[in-house]
Design goal:
With 706 residues, the protein is α/β, with parallel strands linked by helices. It is built from 20 helices and 19 strands.
């Protein structure tokens, strides 16, 4: 980039967007004249800045309408963390996220006539109602972080800054200094810098102040050849002959500080519309209409900008866009203009998802007429760029796949269809693994819902007193019900995995099918681990005693294997549990529903419960008094702690046993996706929010075994 320019040459809107020059051994100069995240990337900035080595002073010249806020935050933080003294020069306009970058300066200097704009971050949302709400929450948090940066630099109250951002506020140099967003005003703006940036602002920002529009009128348009007179042309313009000498394009930037008088255009007569502003408004409307039509049709921004530069009228431009879309889509029947891109992209996403699901063996579907069957991952990545109107032909395959993962990093303005397709497949694979996992805890535990991660008391009411006799004409008396409670709390469990560009090039289906499948199984296994740990670790209850304790009357005194006699002792122990308020005469009559055993005792337990006769009595033919009393559930996690200990549990729908709680009742794990930062590709995070707690001891029993 900088190799095409001589040291000291500032970038222009028709040349490089970003360059760094070393001025001395420990001093450097940076020019940021492009859209952040598109023409100036955070990665490129960080790489070039780090390559300079230690610096003592750094001069940063900016002129930009902003860009991607996350990219801008990276640049801001890099400058803020630099040990060098950073001086920011707003040469023309520092709008949107560029004004955020400017806040990193130890000193912020506004050139004469320069402007600064501060507003809320914005984003497009796509997905379900829940997903859009989550994106809105993230955007709200981002707004708070950005407001804190503005407030810290300006010394203003953060709430006041939030209001400044909400209404979108433009500042002149003097106003920015007064508000604390700049330190002083010095020097003049290059006329061509202001003209180019002002034209962009008038065409693309909704609340451009009159001062900026006036600056556009005030600078005479450069003389051009007839072919270059179209507004928006990217052809470099020759300086116009004006009463004041224009600064040289090759002049040292230090000379830019010299004031350049700006001629003022005559104001329109009172009550008369300003022809210049009317022309600008008409051109802005034409440009936005053409760009919007091209974006919906997915025909590519280059094609649209050529129509803008050629001065094509709106109706004719829309016809050309429709023709180009029809040629690319090869669809014989005409469609409504507003549905072009939706039909094409939705068709691709749906077809690609079905084809990959079938290929991965996750679903069976009718693939008749599905043109994406047989395409490998690399071909699907390229097709996703085609339907998004991005040109990927001739690019190296790794670069092409990178564009498919993150089209915004390559100048696109949409989310990644390809990334969303892979996320869809990965999510289905994860849920399949979750649902097919051979877990045993669900049968004998109850399910609860928690709405946050704070400790929550589970209040359990004791028995209602027996009904009292009411004599004729007498009053009914109120009953008092005691309560008891245990505290439960959620925790988050999760892991990450990544799909790299290399995996796509290698057509590696396992990367987003088998790995998420196993992570889904791991999620449910994690919950199972927590459940059985309640038994094996003998969780402490709210009374300070272990779950299984002699004082709780739920621990066998002499351990023995499951048999008619030991199972009958379990039955009696549960049935005779006492109501703490003394309302139950004799006992609570709790019935065992499950016998929980290690795998080593499964056969013994089933034999003891299913035999017609008491096997301990030999040939005496004594009936088995516990036959069919409960269901046997075995789990190998119990073997790890003890191959002899076994447990009893009552029906969790009637009595308190062990409760498994989930955040907002969401039992299935959740899959989140983001563009890879440490890897070239996309990253996925699988998480589940769960809490496990024994809510009572009366319906639980343990025999330590022989």
């Amino acid at each position: 980039m900088s190799a095409t320019m001589k040291a000291g040459d500032p970038p222009t809107r028709t040349g490089p967007w970003f360059k760094i020059d070393m001025l001395a051994t420990s001093a450097a100069e940076i020019w940021l004249f492009g859209d952040i995240g598109y023409e100036v990337t955070a990665q490129g900035f960080v790489e070039q800045l780090n390559a300079l080595g230690p610096l003592q002073s750094l001069a940063v010249h900016v002129n930009s309408l902003g860009g991607v806020v996350h990219e801008s935050l990276v640049i801001y933080n890099q400058l803020k963390a630099s040990p060098a003294t950073v001086t920011m020069y707003v040469e023309g306009v520092a709008a949107s996220s560029m004004s955020l970058i400017v806040m990193a300066g130890d000193e912020i200097i506004m050139r004469d006539g320069a402007l600064m704009m501060i507003h809320d971050p914005s984003a497009g949302a796509r997905g379900t109602v829940e997903e859009i709400k989550r994106q809105a929450d993230v955007l709200d948090k981002l707004r708070g972080e950005v407001a804190a940066i503005y407030a810290a630099r300006s010394g203003q109250d953060e709430q006041a800054v939030r209001e400044i951002m909400r209404v979108e506020t433009w500042y002149t140099g003097a106003e920015a200094v007064a508000a604390g967003f700049a330190d002083r005003v010095d020097g003049a703006v290059e006329p061509e810098t202001m003209r180019a940036t002002a034209m962009d602002a008038v065409m693309h920002l909704p609340n451009v102040p009159p001062a900026l529009a006036a600056a556009l009128r005030a600078v005479p348009a450069p003389k051009q050849k007839d072919d270059d007179m179209k507004v928006g042309s990217n052809t470099p313009a020759a300086p116009a002959a004006t009463p004041q000498p224009a600064p040289s394009q090759t002049a040292d930037p230090s000379q830019m500080a010299a004031p350049v008088p700006t001629p003022q255009a005559p104001a329109p007569a009172p009550g008369q519309a300003d022809p210049a502003m009317m022309a600008v408004a008409d051109e802005r409307k034409r440009t936005n209409t053409i760009l919007s039509a091209a974006r919906m049709a997915g025909v590519g921004q280059d094609f649209a900008m050529q129509l803008v530069r050629d001065g094509v009228a709106v109706d004719a431009a829309v016809m050309q866009i429709q023709t180009k879309w029809a040629e690319a889509d090869q669809t014989p029947e005409p469609r409504a203009h507003v549905r072009m891109v939706a039909d094409s992209r939705d068709k691709f996403v749906e077809g690609a998802v079905q084809a990959l699901l079938m290929r991965a063996g996750l679903e069976k579907a009718n693939m008749a007429g599905n043109e994406f069957v047989g395409m490998n991952l690399r071909e699907l990545a390229r097709h996703s760029l085609d339907v998004a109107g991005m040109q990927a032909r001739g690019k190296p395959v790794l670069e092409m796949v990178g564009m498919a993962f993150a089209p915004h990093m390559a100048g696109g303005h949409s989310t990644s269809d390809f990334g969303n397709i892979l996320a869809n497949i990965a999510s289905k694979a994860m849920l399949k693994g979750f649902e097919e996992a051979e877990e045993t805890f669900q049968g004998w535990t109850s399910t609860g819902t928690l709405t946050d991660f704070k400790p929550t008391s589970r209040v359990d009411l004791n028995l209602f007193p027996a009904l009292a006799e009411v004599a004729e004409g007498a009053e009914y008396k109120h009953a008092t019900i005691g309560d008891r409670g245990e505290t439960t709390q959620l925790a988050t469990y999760g892991r990450m995995f990544a799909i790299t560009r290399q995996a796509i090039v290698n057509d590696d289906m396992d990367a987003f099918t088998r790995i998420p499948l196993r992570m889904g199984r791991a999620a449910i296994r994690t919950v199972g681990n927590l459940v059985y740990a309640v038994l094996t670790a003998n969780q402490v209850m709210s009374d300070g005693k272990a779950l299984f304790h002699a004082d709780h009357a739920n621990l066998a005194g002499a351990g023995a294997a499951p048999s008619t006699a030991t199972l009958d002792a379990l039955r009696v122990a549960m049935a005779t549990q006492k109501d703490p308020d003394g309302h139950a005469t004799g006992g609570l009559n709790i019935r065992p529903a499950y016998i929980l055993v290690p795998a080593a005792l499964e056969g013994t337990a089933k034999q003891a419960l299913e035999s017609e006769y008491d096997t301990a009595k030999g040939d005496k033919g004594v009936p088995n008094s516990v036959r069919g009393m409960a269901e046997v559930i075995s789990d190998a996690r119990l073997d790890t702690a003890s191959s002899t200990a076994w447990y009893g549990a009552a029906n969790p729908g009637i009595h308190d046993t062990v409760e498994v709680s989930y955040l907002d009742g969401q039992k299935a794990p959740y899959l989140e996706q983001r563009d890879g930062w440490n890897i070239d590709g996309t990253e996925f995070k699988v998480r589940i929010d769960a809490g496990v707690k024994a809510l009572g001891y009366r319906a639980m029993y343990k025999n330590p075994g022989a």
